[in-house]
Amino acid sequence: MARVNAIRRDHPSLQQDRTLHFHDVDNDRLIVYSKTVQCGLDGEDWDDAVLVAVNLDPESVQAGTVYLDLVALGLDPTETFLLHDLLSGTRYQWTGNTNYIRLDPATMPAHIFHLERLAG
């Protein structure tokens, strides 16, 4: 819990309620949402973006395909971006709006990803 509180303190997007956006996932035992702090006049870029995926089943491994709303995240469908899992330290590259996630309540019940644009 201390790690989650530190993550919340370090990310302005997690300190505001008005930026909450839910993303589709094909498993009703998983929930995926993002929070962003927008910058710029066009509102299409962000200073801080966090994507959270949570297993709502405390006893079983749950997996599914996430369908990100790229417009809400200000991302182009062809853009490759980095997701840095702030809980595990693992980094993933995603392109497009769909990706597979698997969450085990015994070892990794959630991901808290910091979204980072790749240079170039």
Distance between the termini: 36 Å
| Quantity of strands, as a count | 8
Shape: globular
Which class in CATH terms? Answer: Mainly Beta
Give the domain tally: 1
Main β-sheet, spatial strand arrangement: 6-5-8-3-2-1-4-7
Summed up, the helix count is 2
Topology as a string of helices (H) and strands (E): HEEEEHEEEE
Based on secondary structure, the structural category is: mainly beta
Radius of gyration: 14 Å
% residues in beta strands: over 45%
Which spans of ≥5 residues are poorly predicted at pLDDT below 50? Answer: none
> Per CATH, what is the topology?
Immunoglobulin-like
Provide the CATH superfamily: Golgi alpha-mannosidase II
Residue share in helix: 10-25%
The chain-level mean pLDDT equals 85
Largest sheet: 8 strands, antiparallel
Instruction: Classify the oligomer.
Output: single chain
Query: Which architecture name does CATH use?
Result: Sandwich
What does this structure look like?
The chain has helices at residues 2-10, 70-73; strands at residues 21-25, 30-39, 45-55, 62-67, 80-85, 91-95, 98-103, 110-117. The protein has 120 residues and is mainly β. The chain has one domain (2-117): Immunoglobulin-like (Sandwich). The chain has an 8-stranded antiparallel β-sheet, with no helix packed on it. Strand 5 and strand 6 (91-95) form a beta hairpin.
